[in-house]
Amino acid sequence: MIFCKILALLGLVAAALSAHADNWPSRPIRFVVAAPGGSSLDIIARTLGDKLKDRLGQPIVIDNVPGASGTIATGNVARAAPDGYTWLISYNGPLAYTQFLTRLPYHPQKDLVPVIQTSSQPNVLAVSTDLAVNNVRELIAYVRARPGKLNYASVGNGSSSHLTMELFKSMTGSYVVHIPYNGAPPAALSLVSGETQMLFSVPSVVMPQIKSGKVKALAVSSASRFPLLPDLPTVAESGLPGFESVTWNGVLVPKGTPVEITQRLNREMDSILKMADVRQRLNNAGLEPVGGTADAFQALIAAEAAKWEPIIRKTGAKLD
Questions:
Q1: Which runs of E-coded beta strand occur in 65-135?
Q2: What pTM was estimated for this model as a whole?
Q3: What residues contact 1, with CB distance under 8 A and at least 6 apart?
Q4: DSSP run (H or E) holding 297
Q5: 3-class DSSP state for residue 4?
């Protein structure tokens, strides 16, 4: 008897969720951005929101919630009601590897449902103009001959900038001293001033210094050449086969959100990311649109977590 009542209750819940999905959306939607206004995530969210408000017939309210390396916003959405009215755009740190750097109030792979990967970009390997190297092979030889005598900058402990260089060190058997900075601008400035000699950074941060000749760009960290920087070789093709590290981001919703809603969001966003004007706007921000299925995004998150956990454990890195 109890079992039958439970089944009946579950049936009522399923029916209620289905009815809710049929009427969705009937009010404004909150789109939480795990970064400040003007950031690349903010640009993506506002670009999608501009298109989605007409397709869904409701306002998309952008809510920038920066702080704690993206974990505040990500945690807030993980605890939100799973009704389709709270979305998140976040990135690889809070979704894949920050869980190995600090204790989180959420589990990225259990408390959130991936909707779609929105974009990706490599890190650019930049070096000081005072460094007597012009390619990755020369850099590897140079740092191996000077263990502990060179510094590398990062945009902070546990960042993609930090972990990408730790991967480089691990694969080359080299030792370079880590100098973490509070964000991208001071990290790039340290390279220009000669305080540090190496930096992995997203293109938008270092390209102005590269174009002005203040730092040298050696390679990109992706497995294949970045379409927006086609003349810059990859680290892998320049002397370190198998090297790959990219930054990526995507949209997620709280666990329990009706599948009909997540499927519609995926279809709408995937279509928008293919639009010429959207691709151009993201390209102008140094981003390459991706799109694809929710399953592909979920697989990416799992694969990135598995890849970076041993590297983080080895470095002993902790979140600031």
A1: 86-91, 112-122, 124-128
A2: 0.85
A3: none
A4: helix 294-315
A5: helix
CB atoms < 10 A from the CB of 242, how many? 8
Q: Six-digit token pair at 318? A: 């902790």
DSSP 235: T
Interhelix angle 259-273/2-23, rounded to 10 degrees, is 30
Amino acid at the residue 114: P
CA dihedral 41, 42, 43, 44 (to 10 degrees): 50
Tokens of residue 244, six digits: 């790959």
Residues recorded for the chain: 320
Give per-residue pLDDT as tens, 54-90: 999 999 999 999 888 889 999 999 999 999 999 999 9
| pLDDT score, position 15 | 47
Q: At what angle do helices 160-172 and 294-315 cross, to 10 degrees?
A: 60
pLDDT digit string, tens, across residues 256-303: 999 999 999 999 999 999 999 999 999 988 899 999 999 999 999 999
